[in-house]
Amino acid sequence: MRTVLGRPRAVGPLWHATATAIALAVLAPLVALAWTALGAGTAHWGHLIAHVLPLAAAQTATLLAGVGLLTALVGTGSAWLVTRTDFPGRVVLQWALLLPLTVPTYIAAYSYVDLLHPIGPFQSAVRALLGVESPRQFRLPDARSMTGAVLVLSAVLYPYVYLSMRAMFATQPARLMEVARLLGEGPWGAFRRVALPMARPALAVGVGLVLLEVLNDVGASEFLGVTTLTTTVYTTWITRSDLGAAAQIACAMLAMVALLVWLERQGRRRRRAGTVHAMRPAPR
Fold this sequence. Notes:
By secondary structure, this protein is mainly alpha-helical. It has one domain: MetI-like fold. The protein is 71% helix and 0% strand. It has helices spanning 13-38, 45-84, 90-96, 105-115, 121-130, 146-171, 174-182, 187-216, 219-223, 229-238, 243-269. The termini are far apart.
C-alpha cells in the first residue's frame, strides 16, 4: 500500500493474511483442475481427437469469429449513433441499448427459438401476410444452427462493445472531427480515419469481454445445436463419465482464456492513445 505522497507504508499481518486467503480461494479451483488433468489417463483421447475435438474446435472458432465481428459492428455503430448525433429520444436510447445485458444467454436462446419456430407467432404472421397457409410452403431457416447462435449471442452480448466504445467516443475531442471535415472528409471518412483508429483499444476491450462470455457459455450453445469446447467439457464429464479428460480439455481452454485476457489488457494499456476531453455531438 502507498500513502497519498506515494511513499510505501507498512502493512500489518492482518492484511497479509487476508490477501493470502483471498489468493488461495481464487487459485484453489485452478489448482484442482490442473491436478485432475495431470492425474487422468488417456483412455478416451483417441476417440476425442478423432471424432470430437476437431468439430468442437472448428465450431468454437467459427462462433467466436462470428459473434466477435457482429458485436463489434453493432456495438460500434450504436455507440457512434448516440454519442455523435442528436435526435429525439437519444438519451432514452443510449440506456435502452444496455437492456440486453439483463437477459441470460440461454433465456434469450429459448425465446428466439420459440418466436421463430415454424408455427410460432413470427412465421405465422409472415405466412398470413404472404397468403400462405402451410409451413411446408414457407419457412425461415432453423434458428437452432450456427447462424442462429451467432445472432442470438450477438444480440445479448453487444452491450459490452457498446459501453466501451460509447465511453471512448464521448471523450474524443469534437475539434478533431471538425478539422477532418474541414479538410474535405465526409462523415464516413472522418469516422474511419479519425474516430475509429483512436477507439481501437476500447474496441479490443469490448470484443475481448464478449469472446470470454462466448467461451463461458454452455446452455445457449448446446440448445442452439452448436458443439463448442465448453459443451464438450460438459458432455465428456457427464455423458462419458471421464472427469480427467474433461479437465484436460478445460486446461486447454484455460490457455485460450489467458490469451484473450492478455489481448484485452494490451488493448487497455493502449487506451491512453485516446485523449480525454469533453465531447459534443459532431455536425452531421
